[in-house]
Amino acid sequence: MTSTYFDVIIVGAGPFGIIAAKTYLELNPTATLALLETDTSLGGAWSKNRVYPGMYSQSPLGMIEFSDVPMKPTPQHYKNYVPAHHVHEYLALYAATHIYDGKSIKDRIRLDTRVVSVQKLRSPRDGTGSESRRRGSTWVVGTDCGQTMVCSKLMIATGITSRPYIPFFNTLDFTPPMLHTKDLARLAPMFMESEGVRNVIVIGGSKSAFDAVHMFISAGKRVDWIIRDKGSGHAGVGLAERTPVYYKNSHQILSTRLMSKMSPCIFQPHDHWMHFFHQTRVGRWATDMVWNTMQFAWLKAARCGHSGDASGARPQLP
Ligand SMILES: Cc1cc2nc3c(=O)[nH]c(=O)nc-3n(C[C@H](O)[C@H](O)[C@H](O)COP(=O)(O)OP(=O)(O)OC[C@H]3O[C@@H](n4cnc5c(N)ncnc54)[C@H](O)[C@@H]3O)c2cc1C
């Protein structure tokens, strides 16, 4: 069997696959490069098939795009957080307009192509096909369409949210319809429109769980939200508005140099500022003041103490 040869194969056409292709082609414009994508749309988490109604980016404009092409604001943005379909359109345009040797990144993406096997050849002599032998390729990539491709460089950009994680539930005789938030865009309308579905249980405490809770409550369903007790509660939530005038949203504040020094993050270089804010009395007092004030404002805005039910969503604090 003959195989198609590429200098580079990238598995996954999400944001990282696309930027990996751009970076490589920028340096080697004549390289033969293919992106293999199992979905029928590019974008990964921002694929047309995964973007559900009400999904917004958690990162604001300026932090959600690639540095060489600023994302244009959209009228539907909220405090500079953008609707997910806008992110998808940005990625699609980015892939279509980055052209190398007459071929855009988009043209190099093979959609609906799942990589099912990858084999590293021990030596160039093991190559399948004369082309690969000549160029000394070292990877053989198999797809679910039965194709075999050979390349000398392989990049894996498959992300961490492509494969749904569904824990085992012992539901005995009761087998409710179940959906993972990866399929929210495709299946949620069916659940929302069905009169037979009156109660929804959402399991999980991160972004897509928040969105699912909001989506089903807005559709008039009764929602029970379950978050495991060993994970410190739901993911951190910040308030988009109520920031000092200069900053458009809380992300911008948290990304300032001053705030990053006040964060006890272990990746921060240990400089004089870190020493001051975390190892002196005055600095620790100032740091505590800032975080406590922010925490107070966010808890108040989340109205966790507003009703008996909502108090369960109060994050576990140290
Ligand atoms: C609901 C949600 C909201 C998010 N919001 C934000 C946000 O606001 N800001 C932020 O920075 N991040 C956010 N993220 C994180 C998000 O994962 C990243 O922004 C980004 O999509 C990661 O890019 P990636 O290319 O590494 O992975 P993905 O975007 O996951 O792309 C991986 C691609 O690989 C493909 N793939 C996987 N296996 C194979 C295979 N065997 N063969 C072929 N193709 C394969 C997948 O189909 C997918 O298209 C969010 C994630 C989710 C799920």
UniProtKB/TrEMBL annotation:
The record ties this protein, via InterPro entries, to: FAD/NAD-bd_sf, FMO-like
Q: Which UniProt keywords apply?
A: FAD, Flavoprotein, Oxidoreductase
Q: Which GO terms describe its molecular function?
A: oxidoreductase activity
**Superkingdom of origin organism:** Eukaryota
Q: What is this protein called?
A: (Perigord truffle) hypothetical protein
Organism name: Tuber melanosporum (strain Mel28) (Perigord black truffle)
- Upper lineage: Eukaryota, Fungi, Dikarya, Ascomycota, Pezizomycotina
